[in-house]
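Quick question, first post here. What does this chain look like in 3D?
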Amino acid sequence: MPKMLFTASHDRVRGFMPAALAVLFVSFFSLVAQAESLRVEGLRVVGDASRARIVIDVSQSPDLRWFLVRAPHRLVLELGDVEYRHEDEPVKPRGLVTDIAFGAAGDSRSRLVLTCEDAFVVENVEIVKNENEPGHRVVIDIVAGSDRQFEAALAEQIATTAGTDAAEQPAERRFTVVVDPGHGGADSGAKGVSGVYEKTITLAFGLELKKALEDTGRYDVHLTRDRDKFLRLDERVKIARRHEADLFISIHADAIRHRDVRGATVYTVSDSPSDAASAAKAVRENLADQIAGFAVQDAGDEVSDILTDLVRRETDGFSLRFAKALVGQLSDEIGMIKNPHRFAGFQVLKAPDVPSVLVELGYLSNARDEEQLRDVEWRAQASAGIVAAIGQFADAKLGAVD
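> Answer (accepted):
Ran it through. Tokens below.
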């Protein structure tokens, strides 16, 4: 159940936190004065580590104001005089939201505080009238973001509220790539004919690809993991968003029953799989959390909307462009499977605003592929193909000219 939180009067908002904290205080809605106390009749959180929707069921349209606080990253909502009626039903933090607290803020105001472990971006705050029953609901959408995005939101909105000069423009950022070595920790992935695990191959390749990209001097490169560590699928997506990735590449090396099948494959995300084998591959990869003993968190339909779908369509277009470039480059460097670009519903590729691909370097179930995957020189050749494809994609996307 959320903690009760008691603070100073809302006309001294800075007294609610250490003086060093920057505070954003923005009027979002100021509607008709309420004749009776606002009743909060329900509070729920859906989502995962990369995205969350918070829905607050209220008896009438509220006078709502919200602001951001850092250290830790918080979204604070102030409402009018509130009577909480949902306390008998425990409201548990979920995914991106790690703590929920509510209580009196003084001067007939009430405060709800949503705490996140890392930086986030507020995508949407709105008040919606219920269609088939009395009352309204407050809907808040937040997504994992970078510290730069959080600080920019603070600076911009503090300046707007206080009438101060706009914050300085951030330094120009370089094209950013997040490399995701698949599996890790309790999730070993596939096992090769000689006993080598997929998680070992993907980590070795990820470290080598990161170095190859950094050696060009063109990119900021980050790994989702740099050691034998388990990460949930939504945490991998969250890392990509935290670094504002321009490109996310998940590295894998599967094993299947048919040991004669070999060669690399490039996958992109789609609700409709290209073939039965790709659909089965997506199912196996999406079960990684359960295999490692972690419960799957279902984001639910409430976190998807028209805006997100439009963003995803544009992102999917970029993903397809990169996949095409990648197939072209890898075909010249290493052997690829028949019809090397395939697609299915991979959970790890579903960040709506980050172009993403999953690269199957080869099959550990095939003796020759496994031998190549364990060979440093072969991996360097494969890395060179990926680096070339990234350069081609970055030039096209950014209009860069070397």
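Residues 4-35, 163-169, 299-304 have pLDDT under 50 and may be disordered.
The first strand starts at residue 3 and ends at 4.
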